[in-house]
Amino acid sequence: MLRLSCPAHAKVNLVLRVGPARPDGFHEISSLFLPLDLSDGVRVTVGKRPGPVTCRCPGHPDLDGPGNLAARAAQALRDRLGRSERVDIRIDKRIPVVAGLGGGSADAAAVLRCLARAWKVRDRHLLAKVGLSIGSDVPFFLGSGPAWAGGRGERLRPTRVAPRYLVLLYPRDPALAIRAADAYRWLDEDRGSAMPRRAKASALRPENDLMAPCVARRPSLRVLLRWLEDAGAAAPIMSGSGPTTVGSYADLRSARAAARELTGRRLDGAGVDVIVARSLARMRGAAPWRSPRSASSPSTRTS
Q1: How many domains does the chain have?
Q2: If we measure between CA atoms, which residue out of 108, 115, 29, 117 comes closest to residue 72?
Q3: Contacts for 205 with CB less than 8 Å, ≥ 6 apart
Q4: Which of 8, 136, 139, 207 is most exposed, with the fewest beta carbons within 10 Å of its own?
Q5: Which of 37, 40, 107, 137 is the catalytic position?
Q6: CB 98 within 8 A of CB 178
Q7: pLDDT averaged over the chain?
Q8: CB of 199 within 8 A of CB of 260?
Q9: Quick one: which of 280, 273, 272, 271 has its CA closest to 298?
Q10: 266 near 274, Cβ under 8 Å?
Q11: CATH number for the domain including 52?
Q12: Share of the chain above pLDDT 90, in %
């Protein structure tokens, strides 16, 4: 058996501009993706004999099984390559689920990285195509670092971004969870027949076209944004389709001080995870598994 591990880095959308819907139902976007040091730990064991793809997420039984994006990615690559070896996946979740941070897509990409190393797949275009069949964000997580994303997210242009020190607020109330499909549908409803602006990369200014329709339907999110503003965050926004809100700080000390101030607060009777994270210039790839520490994240997280 071959055992590999790979960190599955979370991301934030520092910029997310949404254009019109396409005939295939997806929207044209222009988004600046920043990978974070917050990550899930993904371990993949590849057997020598034929067998199924299995997936376990300790502590998250609802994520176990073949429906997990990571398991679907492994099955898709096996099918594409005509392979049948058993693949066992274990995901130690640290990225909040349904949070707008790309955790599921990151896990899928980490599995593809591991299998590509195990099976000596060097065709990046093939991996990106398989990833895109699983989710629009997966190709980004197969890349190296920050990037502007166009199309539905698959047209990537690497870019350099100065390190960002962030505080993430993730409300644990299930009623505040937002599915990406709902966020885009709400945006279309609010725009009506008005012609949306063309999605285009431009000046680096935090903005998210999905934020207004999501906040209109989840008013409690305004509280999170206000908390970040009061704690000194610069231009707090919602990440992706939310509900996680993100505030930027000048340095790590300021971010940690804000996190201490915000820790322990509750929203609509439920707790709020307060996560300090730093943007990365480069994402790590797959490596032989040695110990659970190999996939640990340096992020600071309090609840």
Answers
A1: 1
A2: 108
A3: 15, 235
A4: 207
A5: 137
A6: yes
A7: 91
A8: no
A9: 280
A10: no
A11: 3.30.230.10
A12: 85
Asked about 129 being catalytic, the answer comes back as: no
Q: What is the average per-residue pLDDT within 131-141? A: 96
User: What b-and-e string marks burial along 213-244, b requiring 16 or more CB atoms within 10 Å of the CB?
Assistant: bbbeebeebebbbebbeebebeebbbbbbbbb
Tokens of 203: 């000046």
d(CA 57, CA 187): 33
Q: How far is CA 218 from the centre of its chain?
A: 21
Residue 202 confidence (pLDDT): 52
Backbone angles phi, psi at 18, to 5 degrees: -115, 125
The CA distance from 173 to 44, in Å, is 31
pTM, 2 dp? 0.91
Check 11, 37, 40, 92 and give the catalytic one. 11
197 against 82, higher pLDDT: 82
Q: Compute φ and ψ for 156, nearest 5 degrees.
A: -110, 135
Determine whether 11 is an active site residue: yes
Structural domain of residue 7, as residue ranges? Answer: 1-303
The answer to whether 265 and 125 have CB atoms below 8 angstroms apart is no
